[in-house]
Design goal:
It is built from twelve helices and eight strands. By secondary structure, it is of the alpha/beta class. Strand 2, helix 2 and strand 3 form a beta-alpha-beta unit. The longest helix has 22 residues. It starts with 6 loop residues before the first strand and ends in a 6-residue tail after the last helix. It binds NADP nicotinamide-adenine-dinucleotide phosphate.
C-alpha cells in the first residue's frame, strides 16, 4: 500500500493504463488517489472509458497534488514534459519521479527537472495489467532507499519486481520489456502448427498459450535449468528431439537471442528528442 500517497500518471496510454489499472486492482492505490493525463483532447473521452481514475490534459495540475509521478509518455517526449513542468514550478514540492521511458537515463531526466529531482527508472511490461508483469527498477543519483522501496511497492503487486544497476536497463528493456511481443509471436506460430495439422484455431491457441505458461512456471518454480527441463521432454529417438533438431537447423535459439540483443541496442537510442 502507498498509505494514502497520491500518484500522477503522465501519459495514460497502453502502459500508463496497464500500470494505473494494476495499481487499482491490486489495492495499492485507490482510484481517487490517481490522476492520469493524455496529450490530445480527442483521446481524453475514449481513454476515460478505459480507466477507473480521473484523467485530464493538464500535466501540471495532475502533478501538483502528487507524491509520486509516473512518467509514461513516449521516450522522445519525456525530457520536454519534465522541463515544462520544472519551468512552471510544478515540481517544486519534490515528488518522487518514476520513469518507465525506454532508453532515457536518470541523469537526463534529472537534468530536465533542473537537477533537483529524485528519479527512479523502471522497466515494466504489459502483463503488469493482470498481475503477471516483470519490472526492474534502478535508482538515480538522488533517489533514497525509501524512494526505491516506494517504487518496488508500486511494482511488486503487479507481478515480480527487482532492482538492478542502471547500466543494465537497456538490456532489461530488450528482454522483459519487449519480451511479451516475442512470446506472442511464438504462441501464434505454435498455434499455426496445430492449425496446419487440423486443430481448430481457438483450441490450438489455448494449447499453445497454456504450454508456454506451464513451461514458464516450471522454470520459475522448480529452479531447474531450462535445458534440463527440455531433456525431460526429449525421449531418445522420439518426436520431440526430431523437431528440436529442425528448430536448431532454423537457428531458432540464436534468432531469439539476437532479437533481444537488437531490441536492447535499439532501446539505447530511443531517448533522443525529436
Ligand atoms: N508498450 C510497452 O510494452 C512498454 C513496456 C515498457 C515500457 N514502455 C514505455 O512506456 C512508455 C509509453 O509507451 P506506450 O506503449 O504506453 O505508448 P502509448 O500507448 O503511445 O502512450 C503514450 C501516452 O502518452 C501520452 N502523451 C504524449 N505526450 C504527452 C504529454 N506531453 N503529456 C501527457 N501525456 C502525453 C499520449 O497521449 P495521446 O494519446 O493523447 O497522444 C499517450 O496516452 C514509453 O516510454 C515506453 O518506452 C512501454
Amino acid at each position: 500500500m502507498l498509505n494514502g500517497r497520491r500518484v500522477a500518471i503522465l501519459g495514460t496510454g497502453t502502459m500508463g493504463r496497464a500500470l494505473g489499472m494494476g495499481l487499482v486492482s491490486s489495492g495499492t492505490v485507490a482510484p481517487s488517489a490517481i490522476t492520469g493525463t493524455v496529450k490530445h483532447a480527442a483521446e481524453l473521452e475514449a481513454s476515460r472509458g478505459l480507466v477507473s481514475f480521473d484523467l485530464s490534459l493538464d500535466n501540471a495540475g495532475a502533478v501538483a497534488g502528487a507524491d509520486v509521478v509516473l512518467l509514461c509518455t513516449k521516450p522522445r517526449s519525456a525530457r520536454g514534459v519534465l522541463a515544462e513542468l520544472a519551468e512552471a514550478g510544478a515540481l517544486d514540492h519534490d515528488p518522487l519521479l518514476i520513469s518507465i521511458c525506454a532508453g532515457v537515463s536518470t541523469a537526463a531526466l534529472q537534468s530536465a527537472c533542473g537537477d533537483k529531482a529524485r528519479v527512479v527508472r523502471a522497466m515494466p511490461n504489459t502483463p503488469c495489467q493482470i498481475g503477471e508483469g516483470m519490472t526492474v527498477v534502478a535508482p538515480g543519483l538522488r533517489a533514497t532507499t525509501e524512494d526505491l522501496e516506494t517504487a518496488l511497492t508500486i511494482f511488486r503487486p503487479l507481478g515480480r519486481a527487482l532492482q538492478l544497476d542502471e547500466e543494465h536497463m537497456n538490456t532489461v528493456t530488450g528482454l522483459s520489456g519487449s519480451g511479451p511481443a516475442f512470446v506472442y509471436v511464438i504462441i501464434e506460430a505454435l498455434s499455426e502448427g496445430g492449425v496446419m495439422m487440423g486443430l481448430p484455431r481457438s483450441v490450438a491457441t489455448e494449447l499453445a498459450a497454456q504450454t508456454v505458461k506451464g513451461a514458464a512456471r516450471m522454470v520459475l518454480e522448480t529452479g531447474r535449468h531450462p535445458a534440463a527441463l527440455k531433456d525431460d521432454v526429449t525421449t531418445p529417438a522420439g518426436c520431440t528431439i526430431s523437431a528440436l533438431l529442425l528448430l536448431e537447423d532454423g537457428r531458432l535459439r540464436s534468432v531469439l537471442a539476437r532479437g533481444v540483443q537488437e531490441a536492447a541496442r535499439s532501446a539505447a537510442g530511443l531517448g533522443s528528442e525529436s
